[in-house]
Protein: DUF1489 domain-containing protein
Organism: Sphingopyxis flava
Amino acid sequence: MTRVAVGCPDFPTLAERIASRAVQGEVRFATRFKPKRASELIGGRLHFIVRHMIVGRVEILRFADRGDGRIDIVCRGVLERVHPQPKRAHQGWRYLTEADAPRGIDDSSVGDLPPELYRELAELSLI
């Protein structure tokens, strides 16, 4: 799934936000409706869009009902950096097929590059 990280200008801000909201290794994101394919999504990833780029992801652990009629997407409280991938902003969440999902970044030195520079280097096949 994809979700826009509203108000986050970059990956470090998103990482700080998720870390500050994590409780006992889990972070919750509220949504109005439970996804129809919720059972398929457990164990998958919730990808975050920052400035029209997918930049990070968290693992979806489960879906939980809230007392106010909304649903929590309960995720692991650790944000993983991914290879930046262009993605238009949208409201709510959208499904993302595994084939279309960006790969994680293994090398932390490459992961520290700004997404725009990373994208340019990848388009030139330099990384």
